[in-house]
Amino acid sequence: MAPKGDFFPWWAKDTRKGTPVIVTMENVNYSVVEIDGPDSAFRPIDKDRVKNAKQFTWVLILKANRAVGCLAWIGHILWVLLGAIKKRLFFRRGVAMESEKSGKGKLLFRVILGLLITSLAFLAFEVIAHYMRWPYFQEHNLHIPQTLEIRGWLHLIYVSWLGFRADYIAPLILAFSKFCVVLFLIQSLDRMILCLGCFWIRYKNIKPTINGDPFNLGDLEGSKYTVPMVLVQIPMCNEREVYEQSISAVCQLDWPKERLLIQILDDSDDESIQWLIKGEVSKWMQKGVNIVYRHRLIRTGYKAGNLKSAMSCDYVKDYEFVAIFDADFQPNPDYLKLTVPHFKDNPELGLVQARWGFVNKDENLLTRLQDINLCFHFEVEQQVNGVFLNFFGFNGTAGVWRIKALEESGGWLERTTVEDMDIAVRAHLHGWKFIYLNDVKVLCEVPESYEAYKKQQHRWHSGPMQLFRLCLPSIITSKISIWKKANLILLFFLLRKLILPFYSFTLFCIILPLTMFVPEAELPAWVICYVPVFMSFLSILPAPKSFPFIAPYLLFENTMSVTKFNAMVSGLFQLGSSYEWVVTKKAGRASEPDLLAAAERELSPQLHRGASDSGLSELNKLKEHQEAAPKSPAKKTNKIYKKELALAFLLLTAALRSLLSAHGVHFYFLLFQGVSFLLVGLDLIGEQVS
Prior knowledge:
Layout: H1 53-90, E1 95-97, H2 103-131, H3 153-204, E2 230-236, H4 243-251, E3 260-266, H5 271-286, E4 291-295, H6 302-311, E5 321-324, H7 335-339, E6 349-358, H8 365-388, E7 399-402, H9 403-408, H10 419-429, E8 433-444, H11 450-477, H12 482-517, H13 525-540, H14 550-572, H15 592-603, H16 613-628, E9 638-640, H17 642-660, H18 664-681
């Protein structure tokens, strides 16, 4: 049908009469031309502005298809989440409730539960006020109505609550939130300074250097009498999954055999694992490696007691350095050649620390987030402190100590669960210097299950507070300079070990949801969104491939704050759980070169050549023991974490309240943070625990 010609309104009248005719057009290929006036229809057509109708339709269809796919994906995720909630929370299928061993953990859960119940009651009042359309509900400035404006007993209760909230609750929350914001800004400033120091190190290419070839390492056999004696220790306890690859890696270190001794310090209480480790040690012993197996019948002091017992051997006095590796660490053959030469002509050097690398960092979301955190720790914190202060916390593994420094500092002590930090602080107080090598990397594993990661973080955050209580008098009375004392007390312990978990939990998990019900103390958007996002951006810079995970990283760090806060309080007040040592569960992941080397060893016919009759009989006895041992099928289960679930429902309740007040940033942060707590509380992040 032709257009009606509305541009001639004075004569265009509908005078059609008779039978209408339908005209069918085939092979239509017309264009839509914009007509501005009577003469524009006769102007030449601008081909650049011609739009094909079929192309336009296809574009719309593609966009609609993408939108439907996105909605379907979101719907699928929500459906899976609801199914997991139904299965794990209501029917309790394949799950177990987390047991709280400390009274502090139970008290914290009760406090969070009380806040949740209170917030639900307040939300009910706010919903009623919203639908009753009381005018002061949506006003920015609080208006408390006079007596004549009150419309019943419910209105009276709500008005009384408004007055009490404005006069008594809001000032307290506002003062406490300002205190936490100040701590947050101080910690953010410290992190920015560390990042600037890291940029300066990269810009100036500052690295610890070795002058020449101090031990003539190019000709090891010809210079064996100038190469120092090195002791290598591998403490382990029930490490069935990783013992073989760690022993294999250490036995292949490139160092003169006469100048190297390997100690396997086995604290396993499982006899079958003891047999396996003995067999592995015997295998390498038959190949000419100087390796000994030690087992303690009484496991006191955990890892510190194990190392202390090993250092008491008579032959240790013949060695100058000791390298320590945990059971899941796999050093490269040139590890000692890259670390030990730094001690030459440097008598004040007590420790050389290498960086960790992770063979399973891409295994799941939990391992990726841990990789971000640990990359920042090594790339920024350890490197900056090592370059500018010659001090940092010993990581407990992948480091080489001068034995004289250990002895002068008092040796390994069993008083805390962070024996590595303990010896590092005491060595620093005695004037020893540390070097960190960011280019030397030792492969290891990060926990793949949330349960293992949570136990590890509890130990890592309760131990420093124990140590702070014990070391504070020694720090104050030590002979080091004032600024070193200030660095130890204010930065190393208080700011990075106490203040960080304190404000992250109280500010983002307690104060923020409470301010949704007390709008007079509302937090500004820059505290909730802009500064945390910028800090997360700085934290993720050492791992640039992880930039797509910046939002999950921010949410997960806030989620872990409840565990870190609980551990910090336990260590500070020396509660029972602060002395608990749980070996971090390993999955036994190996890197690709390790797998290839293991395959070559299996195919090699020279594996047991030269073995004595006693060694072969021991290996045969081991194989018989392995075959006779019953193999129970792995049963997978998950845990329900009560504190995380309670915080999830508290944050989601606050998100509903912020939705009534149309708070954009606050609503989205509370919503996503609540979902993050819900996923963690239902153990939906990481691998299932076997």
